[in-house]
């Protein structure tokens, strides 16, 4: 049996996949692996480009843009190996990290899944990546900057303390290795998610089967946003931290993992924040001797975003299975 099935979801990123697979080929040794590419209706010549360079790649077409969870689940079903790796197309390996992770799963049966640190295109470690559920939940709340509010959030949504420095609560789906046997027990990625949040929810279920390890002495390069120009264009502000699709998925995750109460608290928080952000900006304008209604674009964008994820309110509230795509 093969040691590893590498599953890559493609959406119009053949060049990224070529670079990714070149790095896999260059730096991977000591294990037998296959590569499965699942295409989300790219409607281009991605397959011809990739298989011309890597003819052994197994290529599957979803027939529509199924998002991250459904495409990866399909790839997992095609896997012929004793381990599977979810790997983004916009990633590069710099050493034999795949064999290292396979060895971890082989030698530590109490480990449910393993990943490694992310580096940017410049090779520097990417800071402030979430590894606990508390970190993710605290980021949802729009409160004044400062230690008081951050400490308050930390108290009501604390992080777990582990003796193993490598242990985390969840791992990024950009690089996540686990076993088909583990997936058989917990189920695949939740297919209600289109993109984002599905790896967090999956991490919760995977974590019930064993430890989740984020190896602190191993890494890969994550270029990020290879198939989405809109992500690159998104301007992050204090009140507009996430794109609408990310926000919808995150709210769905909170509802699934923490229940109706936690979900309603977040929804109420965002609705109440609409007049607050306007009043705050108008007050700042008056203080600075400007017109009260000047530069309210950020506030308008926040209101629009709240309106977008409120369209999913009832479906999310009752945890209705579906396709939560903005």
Automatic annotation (TrEMBL):
<feature type="transmembrane region" description="Helical">
    <location>
        <begin position="260"/>
        <end position="280"/>
    </location>
</feature>
<keyword id="KW-0808">Transferase</keyword>
<keyword id="KW-0812">Transmembrane</keyword>
<feature type="domain" description="Glycosyltransferase 2-like">
    <location>
        <begin position="5"/>
        <end position="132"/>
    </location>
</feature>
<dbReference type="InterPro" id="IPR001173">
    <property type="entry name" value="Glyco_trans_2-like"/>
</dbReference>
<protein>
    <submittedName>
        <fullName>Glycosyltransferase family 2 protein</fullName>
    </submittedName>
</protein>
<keyword id="KW-0472">Membrane</keyword>
<keyword id="KW-1133">Transmembrane helix</keyword>
<dbReference type="Pfam" id="PF00535">
    <property type="entry name" value="Glycos_transf_2"/>
</dbReference>
<dbReference type="GO" id="GO:0016740">
    <property type="term" value="F:transferase activity"/>
</dbReference>
<dbReference type="InterPro" id="IPR029044">
    <property type="entry name" value="Nucleotide-diphossugar_trans"/>
</dbReference>
């Amino acid at each position: 049996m093969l040691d590893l099935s590498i599953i890559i979801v493609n959406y119009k990123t053949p060049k990224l996949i070529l670079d990714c697979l070149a790095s896999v080929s260059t730096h991977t040794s000591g294990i037998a692996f296959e590569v499965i590419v699942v295409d989300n209706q790219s409607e281009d010549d991605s397959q011809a480009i990739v298989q011309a360079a890597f003819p052994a790649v197994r290529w599957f077409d979803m027939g529509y843009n199924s998002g991250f969870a459904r495409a990866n689940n399909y790839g997992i079903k095609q896997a012929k190996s004793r381990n599977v790796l979810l790997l983004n197309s916009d990633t590069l390996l710099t050493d034999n990290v795949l064999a290292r992770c396979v060895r971890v799963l082989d030698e530590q049966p109490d480990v449910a899944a393993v990943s490694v640190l992310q580096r940017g295109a410049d090779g520097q470690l990417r800071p402030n990546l979430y590894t606990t559920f508390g970190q993710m939940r605290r980021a949802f709340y729009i409160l004044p900057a400062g230690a008081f509010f951050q400490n308050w959030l930390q108290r009501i949504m604390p992080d777990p303390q582990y003796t193993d420095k490598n242990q985390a609560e969840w791992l990024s789906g950009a690089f996540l290795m686990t076993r088909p046997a583990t997936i058989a027990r917990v189920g695949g990625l939740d297919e209600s998610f289109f993109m984002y949040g599905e790896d967090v929810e999956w991490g919760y279920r995977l974590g019930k089967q064993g430890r989740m390890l984020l190896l602190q002495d191993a890494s890969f390069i994550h270029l990020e946003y290879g198939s989405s120009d809109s992500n690159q264009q998104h301007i992050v502000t204090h009140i507009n931290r996430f794109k609408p699709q990310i926000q919808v998925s995150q709210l769905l995750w909170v509802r699934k993992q923490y229940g109706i109460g936690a979900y309603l608290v977040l929804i109420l928080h965002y609705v109440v924040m609409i007049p607050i952000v306007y009043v705050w900006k108008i007050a700042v304008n008056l203080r600075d001797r400007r017109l009260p209604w000047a530069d309210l674009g950020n506030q308008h964008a926040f209101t629009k975003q709240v309106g977008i994820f409120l369209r999913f309110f009832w479906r999310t509230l009752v945890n209705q299975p579906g396709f939560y795509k903005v």
